[in-house]
Amino acid sequence: MYSLTIKTDQAGMELIEPLLYSHITWGWEESDSGTITIHFASQAQLKEFKELIINTSARLDLEEKDVQETDWSQEWKKFFTPIEIDDTFIILPEWLEDSSTELTKILITPKMAFGTGHHATTYLCLSTLSSLLAQDLNTDGLNFLDLGTGSGILGIACAKAGLTGIGVDIDKAAVDNARENITLNQVEGKFQVKVCDLQNLDASNKYNIIFANILASTLKDMRKTIVSLIDSNRYCLILSGILREQAEDVVSSYQELGLGKPMLKHQGEWSAVIWNKLFM
Question: Is residue 182 part of a domain?
């Protein structure tokens, strides 16, 4: 594990803040003095983000460090709080597996950079699934696709709701973490994950529910492929990872492909765009 500490002035913060929100979806630490600390699962991740912020005109003081993973695991236990999604799901770390609750448990082994459910983009996706289930969605025979699966939280929630499907991610470490969580939740028979680029998915397979919790720019670039994977008979397409000010542009790009008016959900600075045709 690796950390990057960033010191900058107010003008610099205004320049790098959009990059934090769009790329560091797992969160960061901010001290009272305004110093930012980000943890990364790999040096490659750190290097990629460092290059992004260096290419701005911000005045930056940067410090990189190796972080002992065992120390990080102990830190998780200090500040990880369970996350309730409406009246449906609760996300718990594995050490709270025996907690008493009437909600459906999603157990995770927290790892840096792969999603714990705390970020608004993940919450919006899970809340959308919760809303579908609250409408008495019959999940028999329905399948799903989780693009950019990360820790596998979204796919695990679908599997526990009775759907079957796959998750893909271009990051092998993320897929390894997702497999850990799939085993932890005992949904191996309903949810499979693999290292795969969207373009390499079998185009003949169609999906009833598609989650795409990735960057707005990627959602636009990949829109034709994403739409081609929809089961046109019954589907719900959920796009997340979108800042509020990006939502209209993303919606327009998908409507150009024939999709109608979507529903929008917001939390803080983030939006999810949803086309729901499951109840036709």
Answer: yes
Residues 275, 237 contacting (CB under 8 angstroms):
yes
How many domains does the structure of the chain reveal?
2
Would you say residue 73 lies in a domain? Answer: no
Element of type H or E holding 61? strand 60-66
The C-alpha atoms of residue 145 and residue 148 are separated, in whole angstroms, by 10
Q: Are 110 and 198 in contact (CB under 8 A)?
A: no
Please tell me which residue, 202 or 67, carries the higher pLDDT value: 202
pLDDT digits over 35-46, tens only?
888 888 788 889
143-147 vs 209-213, strand pairing mode: parallel
CATH number of the domain that 22 lies in?
Answer: 3.30.70
Domain boundary among 19, 36, 67: 67
* Domain that includes residue 140, residue range: 79-276
> Ramachandran region of residue 29, left (φ > 0), alpha (ψ -120 to 50) or beta?
beta
3-state secondary structure of 200: helix
Beta-carbon neighbour count of residue 82 at 10 Å? 14
What CA–CA distance (Å, rounded) separates 267 from 228? 28
Helix or strand run (H / E) with residue 218: helix 216-221
Q: How far is CA 258 from CA 207, 253, 271, in A?
A: 17, 10, 21
Residue written as tokens 């560091």? 24
Q: Mind listing the pLDDT tens digit for each residue in 199-223?
A: 889 999 999 999 999 888 899 999 9
**260 contacts 252 by C-beta, under 8 angstroms:** no
Q: Do 25 and 136 lie in a common domain?
A: no
